[in-house]
Write a structure and sequence with these properties.
about 80 residues, single chain
């Protein structure tokens, strides 16, 4: 993969994380447990993929792998 393809992949993956965080916030505000679970799955998957490819994601420094949160933690 050339460098521009790598940059595109990284950009799309960071955007996926940001969208998942937004979906999680919205679901928590709506107190929609099913939507929270889906958003957490998406966020954890996107973060896991970013870590696997060494792609830095804003706001994740010092957060243990696989710890995007739980439904009990959302909204605290």
């Amino acid at each position: 993969m050339d460098r521009s393809g790598t940059d595109d992949f990284a950009d799309r993956l960071v955007e996926r994380v940001l969208q998942a965080r937004e979906a999680l916030r919205d679901a928590a505000e709506a107190r929609d447990a099913a939507a929270v679970a889906r958003a957490l799955d998406e966020l954890n998957g996107a973060l896991r993929l970013a870590r696997a490819h060494g792609i830095p994601v804003p706001g994740t420094a010092g957060v243990p792998e696989g710890d995007a949160g739980t439904s009990e933690q959302v909204g605290r």
